[in-house]
Design brief:
Blueprint: E1 4-7, E2 14-16, H1 18-29, H2 33-40, H3 45-50, H4 56-66, H5 73-81, E3 84-86, H6 91-99, E4 103-108, H7 112-121, E5 130-133, H8 134-137, H9 144-151, E6 161-165, H10 168-176, E7 180-183, H11 187-195
Parallel strand pairs: 1-4, 1-6, 4-5, 6-7
Antiparallel strand pairs: 2-3
Helix pairs in contact: 1-5
Length: 203
């Protein structure tokens, strides 16, 4: 039976809108959508930030240098982070797992700014026993190192661990280190994936 479940954050526990983020950042900074995409996506800036190689202030200063008008750090972090919608359909299942003694670990590629926002607004994160975050570890999915680091917090045998994520590539990496993993599509499928692995209390 599964004793530890690893959950991804984005598009599993909470949904996020990249277009909304781009639009808000454009209005905040005065930069065009194309300029913001170029800075975030077509350079290593996003990767550096989500690996914790640069901090929020450094990210802010990078955009401030390119922008046609000034804006404050709080204005920037709000534009960058107010992009989530909670997947509340999933939360009762998480609470059921917790009540039945299943260890819960969050395993996410995320940034300090995004996680601070999520932690403030979504109390479901408080039920997790441990959080494995790319920006704290300096490594991100699909690198197998982040899964190896995550397994340190399982407190059970490898075959008693399960991982769900919306990205197939990340599931494949998890399987390479021996984790059982299934792509997250919706709550009924996840419930069935867990029931098939011994979590019959979810029936």
């Amino acid at each position: 039976m599964i004793k530890t479940v690893y959950f991804d954050l984005g598009n599993v526990l909470v949904f996020f809108s990249f277009p909304k983020m781009l639009g808000q950042m454009s209005r905040c900074t005065g930069l065009s959508l194309e300029q913001i995409q170029k800075l975030l996506i077509h350079t290593e800036l996003r990767e550096q930030y989500e690996k914790g190689l640069i901090n929020t202030k450094q990210l802010y200063e990078t955009f401030l240098k390119q922008a046609p008008h000034p804006f404050t750090l709080p204005e920037f972090t709000h534009a960058f982070s107010d992009i989530f919608t909670p997947n509340t359909d999933l939360w009762p299942l998480i609470e059921d797992l917790k009540k039945n003694g299943i260890r819960l670990v969050l395993l996410s590629n995320t940034s300090q700014c995004h996680f601070d926002f999520a932690k403030k607004h979504y109390p479901i994160l408080d039920v997790f026993d441990h959080k494995v975050l790319s920006y704290e570890l300096g490594v991100w999915k699909p690198d197998i190192q982040i899964f190896e680091k995550a397994l340190i917090h399982s407190q059970c045998q490898l075959d008693e661990c399960f991982y769900t994520d919306d990205i197939a590539e990340f599931i494949e990496s998890a399987r390479k280190v021996g984790l059982q993993g299934e792509i997250f599509t919706d709550v009924p499928k996840l419930r069935q994936d867990l029931i098939l692995r011994g979590c019959t209390f979810l029936k």
